[in-house]
Every structure is written in C-alpha cells, then in structure tokens.
C-alpha cells in the first residue's frame, strides 16, 4: 500500500475535523486516523483543531473534547498533541495580531490538556 504524502494526509485530517464538527462522530475521526497509519502526521490533528477553533471559537469546546477523547482511546498520544500545540505557541504573538482570539483559544487547549493529563507542565517550560 502506497504511503500518502504529508499534504494529502493533512488535507484528510482537516476534512475529517470539518466533518466531526457537523456530525460529532468521534469513531469516524479515530477510524480515519487509523487508516492514515502515520504517526508523524498526528501532531497535525491538534494543530488543525486549534486552527479551526481560531476561525470559529464556537467550535473550541467540541474540538478540545475530541482531542481528549482521542488521547483517552489511545488513538493520539500526549506528545503528539503537545507537538501540535507547540506549532501554535511558536507563532502565537504574531498570530494574535491577525486572530485576536488565538491566545484565549490556545490557553483553553493547553489548560484542557493539563487537566486531562496529556499535556505536561514539564513540556511547557
């Protein structure tokens, strides 16, 4: 079976998250990630979830719950979520200029991860 390109996998993840926001089907997201079978693209799940929440803050709680559930079901690893969050933290100051809600949304994702145990304090330091 031929491995998909990074771009194709990221597009599938983004489309799957869009679909999740409409249908709220965690099993469908989990199945898509299993089918992709590519751990190196899994940080993009958290990155894309945060990006979508920046654009539509009303989706933030649903996307946070999705990440939490995927980690609880061992579909995603905490380190993968942390890596996706890191990609936003790196440019948060610049992003806040264009998307004023981005710091609050990022804080909500990080706080939820800390509370659920899949983002560590040690990682954030």
Order of helices and strands: HHHHHHHH
* Average pLDDT over all residues: 94
Question: Percent of residues in helical segments?
Answer: over 70%
Please mark out the parts with pLDDT under 50 across 5 or more consecutive residues, or reply none.
none
Shape: globular
Number of helices: 8
Beta-strand percentage range:
under 5%
Q: How many beta-strand segments?
A: 0
Q: Describe the biggest sheet?
A: none
Helix/strand/pairing class, anyone? Answer: mainly alpha
Radius of gyration (Å): 14 Å
The rounded distance between the terminal residues' Cα atoms is: 40 Å
Fold and architecture overview:
The mean pLDDT is 94. The chain starts with 5 loop residues before the first helix and ends with a helix. It has helices spanning 6-23, 26-36, 43-55, 60-72, 78-89, 92-98, 102-116, 121-124. The protein has 8 helices and no strands. By secondary structure, the protein is mainly alpha-helical. The longest helix is centred in the N-terminal third of the chain and has 18 residues, at 6-23.
């Amino acid at each position: 079976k031929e491995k998909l390109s990074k771009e194709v996998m990221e597009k599938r993840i983004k489309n799957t998250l869009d679909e999740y926001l409409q249908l709220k089907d965690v099993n469908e997201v989990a199945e898509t990630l299993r089918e992709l079978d590519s751990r190196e693209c899994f940080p993009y799940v958290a990155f894309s979830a945060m990006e979508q929440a920046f654009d539509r803050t009303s989706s933030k709680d649903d996307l946070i719950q999705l990440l939490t559930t995927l980690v609880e079901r061992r579909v995603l690893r905490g380190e993968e979520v942390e890596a996706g969050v890191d990609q936003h933290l790196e440019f948060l100051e610049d992003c806040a200029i264009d998307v004023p809600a981005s710091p609050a949304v990022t804080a909500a994702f990080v706080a939820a991860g800390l509370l659920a145990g899949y983002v560590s304090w040690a990682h954030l330091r």
